Amino acid sequence: MTHGRRVVAIDVARGLAIAGVVLFHIVWDLEFTGIISGVARHPIWLTFGRSLAGTFMFLVGVSLVLAHRDSFHVRAFYRRLFIITAYAVVITLVTWLIFPESFIFFGILHAIAAATVLGVPFLRASVSACLGAAGFVLILPFVMDAPAFNTRWLAWIGFAERSPPSNDFVPIFPWVGVTLLGMASAKLFATRTNRSSLVYYTTQGWLTRIFVWMGNRSLLIYIIHQPILLGAIILLSWALSTQH
What we know:
Oligomer: single chain
């Protein structure tokens, strides 16, 4: 990831995760349009969706450590942060127009932007410090909540007694804890691994290349896939309804 090089395993993991997101939204769209029922809100399927969010948050921590392993690259950091934040704002505005009752006020991109900023103080911290902070962030919201945090203005912190409705909600507590776990894992791995072994200069197999390609473009895929899917599935729903 330094000097233009990338860790293939991370790109593959991110590619698999974004493929899972596309699959998750296909099922959500099919149920939203009435083509199927009883799947999108099933606890197992919702758990699958949460696992995808956890994967992305974990990889944020891993990538943050590896990208700034030698020194903090200010320009690259702020450029990435600006892009993610801008897309997060766009998603909030668009979902507010389409789903005003359940718009995304703090979804996965908002959480990634927040975790990116909050992870900076831990870039030079020890593995133990990262693990300790991760445990604190992960556990605290399960032992502390209050009605005062139930509004959208405060629920994003993670201490809401009852979170406002949202099509995607990834609050800072506990999810930034997963990013800190990713940072701890990357630090532990980096101390035991030669720099050259972190990077593969060639990839083998068409399936690996596909997931690497998707991983490199995960943000773009995340932004454009749902409008395309939802539009196509709405047309499919109309076509099926005209046959009855």
